[in-house]
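Students often ask why we bother encoding 3D structure as a string. The short answer is that it lets us treat folding as translation between two languages. Here is a chain of 363 residues written in the first language.
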Amino acid sequence: MSRLSLVPCGEFKTSYRADTTLFATPLSRNMVFLGVVLLALAPLSIGGWRPVSDYWITLLIQIGYLGIAALGLNILVGFTGQISLGHAAFFGFGAFSSAWLNNTFGVPVALSIPLAGVMTTAVGMIVGIPAARIKGLYLAIATLASQFILQDFFARADWFTGGSAGSLAEPFALFGYVLRGDRQYFYVVLFFLVVMYLFAANMLRTRDGRALVAVRDHYLSAEVMGINLTKYRILSFGISSFYAGIGGALFAHYLQYVSIEGFDILLSVQFLGMIIIGGLGSIMGSLMGTAFMVLLPEAINAVVNILKNTTWGNIPAVTDGLAFFKQAAIGLAIVLFLIFEPDGLARRWRLIKAYWKLYPFSY
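And here it is in the second language, the structure alphabet:
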């Protein structure tokens, strides 16, 4: 009697350890590695020819530092079920903290960036103390109050922020070598982006990470299981603020100047838009939503420029209407995603992968 060999027809998890791996499949792991390698090659020039223009390098840098801050907000909102309307203030605090540490104490920029994240964590945990007692709309109002409190602090603390004049931030230097230009600074942002995203993905596999998700899903059941709600709610604010501080510090040393006007409530709403569009409770969705929010105004601007060179460009109503639409596009995108795709781009990507995985038997 011949023995039949069993051939697996998919990816099967046979243990809890296999179910909590950092990458769901070997293919996803290889695709992530390939994506990082391709991004690392993007700023390079081949015989004087640059496959990626300076314009796109600038956009990639923006997606990088904003994506780090957006991931922190997603850990707070998407994974823990809290709410924050003051994320931009923590982003700004990280920017000012890194510049202050470097200018006042001479801390190297390579160290001032993570130290700025630690300082922002302390502030975030103080603001997160009300989260131990309140939730929902009341917590949203409390975080909104922190936004205005920190904005007022930025305007009055001349010793820390430079007041209305702003603060200068030195360029990133490593072992005495100063990285100048977007193409060199791109690697700094890429390094922090990879480290922070891997840290978040790994943290959510731990006991503390699962506790954060349990607080989101049903806080009463989590408390019955022995999870300290106060501890993990405040911890989520601290982690979120740490990510915002790192992103803000990278932003500061990229522009090499920090001004108090750039961290208003509008930026906080944009951060919320990033995680809503990308997908609440999704690490990959945080980066996808950030890319969408950064590239959407650029795409609309390209359409406006194309129409200006056609016969439609002679019609004031069309050009003025498109200019207005450019300002309203972000809000419209958030509303449309909430109505038609509330789980964001991450869910749509999962559906696309599932379709091709089962093709042609996708039903």
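Translate back mentally: The chain has one domain: 35-42+54-358. Keep this in mind for the problem set.
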